[in-house]
Amino acid sequence: MMVRLLVVAVFSLHAHGLGLLRGGFGPADLDTEAQAPLHNYRLSEHGRVANEKTSLTLLYQNNLNSSDDQNHAGAILLDPTGQHDLRDACEEIGETMISLSTIMEYKEDFLNIFSYHFYVRNQTEKIEQERFYIRNGVLIVKDGDEHFEHHPFPSRNVQLPVLCTQSSSGGGERRDRDAQRQLIRVNSESNTYIGSRDRKSFRFLGIPYADSPTRFSYAKPYSGKFHTIEATEYGPSCVQFAGGSENCLYLNIQTPYIPKKNSTLGLRPVLFWIHGGDFTAGTGSDPVTDGGNLASREDIVVVTFNYRLSTLGFLAVPGTDIQGNYGIADQLLALEWTIKHIAQFGGDPRQITIMGEGAGASSVKALLSSPHARGKFQGAIAMSDVKDGVHIVHVPGEAPNNSYLSILELYQTTGQKVFSEARCEGTTEQQISCLRELSAFTLVTLPTVARHVVQDGKYIDTPGLDHGAEHADIPVMFGNTVDEGASFIQYPSTDIKTELDGIQEPLDLSTTQALRILDSNHFPSPNTGNITLDSFTIAQRIATDVKVRCPNQAAIYAGVSSGKIKPSYYYQMQRTMGGVDPNNIGGPPPTPDSPNGDPQLPYFRLHGSDLPFVFGNLDTIRDPSDLYAAQLISSYFAEFVRSGQPNPDAKYLTARGYKRTLKALRAFGPWEPVHNASGPIQMLDFPSQNAPFQDLEQCEFLGFPDNVLA
Fold first, then answer.
1. What tens digit of pLDDT does each residue of 428-466 get?
2. Does the pLDDT at position 249 exceed 50?
3. CA 485 to chain centre
4. Nearest CA to 238 among 271, 270, 274, 204?
5. Predicted pLDDT of residue 34
6. Strand 301-305 relative to strand 250-255, pairing
7. Are residues 261 and 247 in contact, defined by beta-carbon separation less than 8 angstroms?
8. What is the bridge-based pairing of β-strands 476-481 and 568-573?
9. Is the peptide bond before 680 cis (omega within 30 degrees of 0)?
10. Cα 483 to Cα 543: distance, rounded to the nearest angstrom
11. 3-state DSSP call for residue 649?
């Protein structure tokens, strides 16, 4: 009886608009063990959807230098409004009309903002000037003119677009009336989503795209109806070694634009990001891949999300209904939610590019092969897809390059070990029942976990990467960093006496195999005088070639030569920061002029260390070229999202005021598609330059597409 009364009480609060339920859970979703927290926001403070009468465009000249943010100001652009509604128009979003003094104080920023405004408007209609309502009058801006005109309000009720202040920095510490009004309320179908905004983007976090999944079953689309979902905080990550929850299927949206309710005008291209982590770790809330900067600087919408991991996401048992690929099915469910709802958040459902790194790149390739994904995206980027397994030499139980194990193969090498280590005995049915009773954390921390995509006959129905006829016209991009292997092998724990010893242990090679490699002269020593470091450098290069570079270069060339994946682009990231660093080898060494490390000195470009430059999220700027490279590289990737090729249009860059990026592109030349066995590829840095496929002789020696060391 007490439980029933509690549920009724919570329902009463929700129904009368006195609180919001985190994640949108209605009364039927509450239980006595885990209730969604109630918040003290009154719905009456922001009861009407923000875009009921107007679209909202967040204007900000983002140079990706967060330490410089205080020197810039933004604005929010509203649709044409009559004078009688001016005050309410900005006040309803917790702002006021922007002043002429603010525009003049940050004139250079606003010149670029207005230049891009004309560029966008002129895609559909030719205009030479635009008038905006601002505080105390009308601002007149002429295309190509650096001078602004300010006039009094007109004598009649003319409808003009409105420029509001943009005072939110996203700190979240304010709880006053204006802070509550700055929450952005958007409807999509029967539900309402309350997001927030920071200096650079509108943010909707922790949106449930599926109901809480049942263990070892495919998730179902979110079924909540008439819910108000507070989307201001990330949902929990999926269960992994660091923690998490089984109720984890949430996605996040960062967007520069909210269209007017029920309007499809001005929708932006969408980047659908699939996180990496070896299918055992990772989250859509990683700050390194936060989409706010990319959305702001490049005027696109970024979607990130969680999917089930490890044994909870990939266990497959033959002869049962546990068929695996639950994590892949989650990805498709998130993609389908995006297609269905993203227009309400400013994204174009007909212009979606899927992108992932590591396991996310493997997922991109799986979706390229999946019959369930056909027609659901228009571009694909696979960053640093890693050859299955931790071994350089092929061992039983690992799928060959760009191929998938059968359910039986996975069960024989993984599933049986999971049952044994979990001490689940008896018939198969009893073993499965035992796994269902164990805690989620126990399952994902066993010595053996399931983490492979399999041929399940449903989501994956081919033995390997199959860019079929339905995807033949979808542009793709593959790539790698220079030293991926340094993230996957162990640095010697003791000083090494010979290079032979130095490569045998980390690569798990026999003496004969190691001698063959050294005698080939394909992997010369850097001869630094430190044999231990030299040995690791050789070993990591071999690991990079075997696990990442050679299979991905071979895969994209195979697709191009067969005509199955055109157009296709390839890159190698030359400048990086951070990344997967189990050996704590760090980045470039510091110097007096570069106390945070000098990128001009030798250092290992690790797995995942390209992400700060792609998303424009630099923790530190070691030298000016770090910032310039982030501006250039993020521009390449965003242009691929916009147009299916990575070379930004000069008119676009001019309109945005991205002069340095434009100058660099003109000086370095275009990024060419792969068209033969030599490439070409793009070496991404500042400057960026064209080059052939890397380590072709080494790849041939290693026997790609078949590993000669097997």
1. 999 999 999 999 999 999 999 999 999 999 999 988 766
2. yes
3. 22
4. 274
5. 35
6. antiparallel
7. no
8. parallel
9. yes
10. 9
11. coil
Instruction: State the DSSP H helix or E strand holding residue 206, giving kind and residue range, or none if neither.
Output: strand 202-208
- Rounded Cα gap, residues 615 and 479, in angstroms: 16
How far lies 292's CA from each of 60, 331, 337, 563, in Å? 12, 21, 20, 36
Q: Residue 478 belongs to what H/E stretch?
A: strand 476-481
Residue whose C-alpha is closest to residue 192's, from 207, 170, 175: 207
Query: Fold for domain 178-383?
Result: Rossmann fold (3.40.50)
666, 362 contact by CB (below 8 A): no
Query: What proportions of the chain, in percent to the nearest 5, are helix, strand and coil?
Result: 35, 20, 45
Start-end of H helices in 422-464:
428-437, 440-444
Quote the pTM value: 0.91
Buried b (16+ CB within 10 A) or exposed e, 490-521: ebbeeebeebebbbbbbbebeeebbeebbeee
Q: Among 3.40.50.1820, 2.30.110.10, 1.10.10.10, 3.30.70.2580, what is the CATH number of 478-615+624-702?
A: 3.40.50.1820
What are the DSSP calls for 451-483, one per residue? Answer: ---EE-SSS--SSB----GGGTT--EEEEEETT
Q: Count the helices and strands in the chain (H runs, E runs).
A: 22, 23
Half-sphere exposure of 614 (CA within 13 A, CB side): 29
As given in the structure block, the two tokens for residue 26 are: 């209605």
Task: Give the strand order in the sheet containing 257-258.
Answer: 149-151, 137-142, 129-134, 160-165, 75-81, 56-59, 257-258
Q: What mean pLDDT is predicted for residues 510-517?
A: 94
Q: Judging by DSSP bridges, how do beta strands 379-383 and 681-684 pair with one another?
A: unpaired
Question: Chain centroid to CA 389: how far?
Answer: 24
Domain ranges, ordered by start, for the chain: 56-165, 178-383, 478-615+624-702
Angle at 156 between CA 150 and CA 159, to 5 degrees: 70
- pLDDT at residue 178 in the model: 53
pLDDT attached to residue 458: 93
**378 and 350 in contact (C-beta within 8 Å)?**
yes
Q: Which of 75-84, 401-410, 639-648 has the lowest mean pLDDT?
A: 401-410
The answer to whether 56-165 and 178-383 have equal CATH topology is: no
> Other CB atoms closer than 10 Å to residue 61's CB: what's the count?
20
The pLDDT of residue 110 is above 60: yes
Distance between terminal CA atoms of the chain?
Answer: 66
- For residue 555, the Cα-to-chain-centroid distance in whole angstroms is 23
Token pair for residue 656? 């945005």
To which H or E segment does residue 486 belong? Answer: none
Read off the amino acid at residue 103. I
Res 708: pLDDT: 35
Q: What would be the CATH architecture of the domain defined by 56-165?
A: Roll (3.10)
Query: Which one, of 209, 429, 211, 210, lies nearest residue 322 by Cα?
Result: 429
Residue of 314, 250, 316 whose CA lies nearest to 277: 314
Three-state secondary structure string covering 23-58: CCCCHHHCCCCCCCCECCCCHHHHCCCCCCCCCEEE
In the chain, the amino acid numbered 59 is L
Check residue 330 and give its pLDDT: 98
- Which residue do the tokens 């299927």 mark? 249
**Residue range 3-17: average pLDDT?**
31
**Residue 663, helix vs strand vs coil:** helix
Q: What HEC string does 351-397 produce?
A: EEEEEEECHHHHHHHHHHHCHHHCCCCCEEEEECCCCCCCCCCCCCC
Q: What is the mean pLDDT of the chain?
A: 89
Confidence of residue 563 (pLDDT cuts 50, 70, 90): confident
